[in-house]
Every structure is written in C-alpha cells, then in structure tokens.
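Anyone up for a design puzzle?
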C-alpha cells in the first residue's frame, strides 16, 4: 500500500522503556475474556499490529500456535522481545513494519488485534487490507481503551496531576499538541 506518508522515527522514540510502568494496564481478565469470546484454543495465528512492547501480544500468544507482533518502532520491538523472553513465550515473531505495509507476506491470521494503535494508521485502507488477511470467521479486534483523566476516577491510587502535566507540555512544547516532529493530525 503506498500512501505518501513516511514513518517519523521520533514519534515513539524513547517511549518503549517506560510503557510497562508508565501506562495504565489493561483491565485484569482482559486476555481471558477475549479468549473466551473468540473461542481461542491454542490453534491458528495471531497478528498484533502496533504491538508496542508486546503488551497484548505476549499474554495472548499462548492462545495461538503462532503470534506475529508488528510495529515500526525498533525500541518497541526490542522491549517486546525482552518481555517475551522474561515471560517464557517462544512462539512470537517480531516484524518491523507499519500497518500500511501489510500484508507484507505475513499470511493469514485467525485474529488481528490493534490495541490503541489503529488511530495511528490510515484506517480505511488498513482495515481493507486486514480483512483480506482474515479467513472466514476470523476476527478484527480493536482495543480502544480510554486512559484519559475521567477513566482514573474512583480507582484506589491518586489521580495523576493531569492539569499540571498539561501546563508543563504547553510551557515546553506550545499550545498545539505535538506528535513526533509534527503536530497531531
Ligand atoms: C499507544 S501504543 C500501543 C502499543 C501496544 N499495542 C499496547 O497496547 O500497549 C501505539 C503503537 O502503535 C505503533 N504505531 C504507530 N503508528 C503505526 C503504524 N502506522 N502502523 C503500525 N503501528 C504503528 C507505535 O509505534 C506504538 O508502538
């Protein structure tokens, strides 16, 4: 797929090391619920696009014969490899590519996951490509968990100082939200 848009290396540069500790985790039981809903049984293949440091790929991989994690950011993939080794997960292949590069000869997948990554892609074109990579009965899973201020209300830990963080960002980076070398589209 050619879209005239090039990957900006600075978009997630340096972020991977802080993902596991610094981002709100997915809901407890998320992987088991997904496995139950999709009737996963250890067969078939999983594709996790925009897999980051393997947040979803690694815990889900055991429900498949093989998993493939795809991400354009080398730092994310390095962390994902470490996480898989740490958790003793050996059936994952990591591929450095953008969603827009799919199908990239990766084959057919029973389940394709985008976990907080679909919004970064050229969505219509990517969805059409992914549809062609799914067999009849395959599943496209869009995980769009909201980790915004309102989602932390009522939790046992103190709410992060969102206003202070926003002030800091404005002070150092200006009033328009940045994304890598450019601005958030
Ligand atoms: C918010 S992180 C989510 C990572 C992981 N899926 C998770 O749930 O923790 C978004 C990820 O999407 C990746 N990404 C950004 N643009 C992408 C694209 N065009 N194609 C594939 N992945 C992309 C980033 O490198 C980053 O690792």
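Challenge accepted. My sequence:
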């Amino acid at each position: 797929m050619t879209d005239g848009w090039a990957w900006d290396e600075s978009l997630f540069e340096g972020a991977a090391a802080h993902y596991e500790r610094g981002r709100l985790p997915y809901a407890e039981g998320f992987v088991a619920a997904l496995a139950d809903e999709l009737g996963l049984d250890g067969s078939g293949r999983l594709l996790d696009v925009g897999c980051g440091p393997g947040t979803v790929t690694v815990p889900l991989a055991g429900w498949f014969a093989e998993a493939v994690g795809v991400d354009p950011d080398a730092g994310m993939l390095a962390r994902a490899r470490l996480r898989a080794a740490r958790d003793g997960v050996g059936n994952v292949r990591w591929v450095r590519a953008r969603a827009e590069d799919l199908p990239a000869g990766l084959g057919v997948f029973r389940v394709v996951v985008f976990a907080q990554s679909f919004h970064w892609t050229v969505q219509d074109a990517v969805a059409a490509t992914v549809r062609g990579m799914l067999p009849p009965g395959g599943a496209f899973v869009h995980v769009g968990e909201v980790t915004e201020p309102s989602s932390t209300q009522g939790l046992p830990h103190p709410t992060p100082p969102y206003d202070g963080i926003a002030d800091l960002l404005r002070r150092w980076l200006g009033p328009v939200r940045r994304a890598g070398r450019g601005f958030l589209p």
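A detail worth pointing out: Helices lie at 16-22, 30-38, 57-61, 74-86, 123-131, 162-173.
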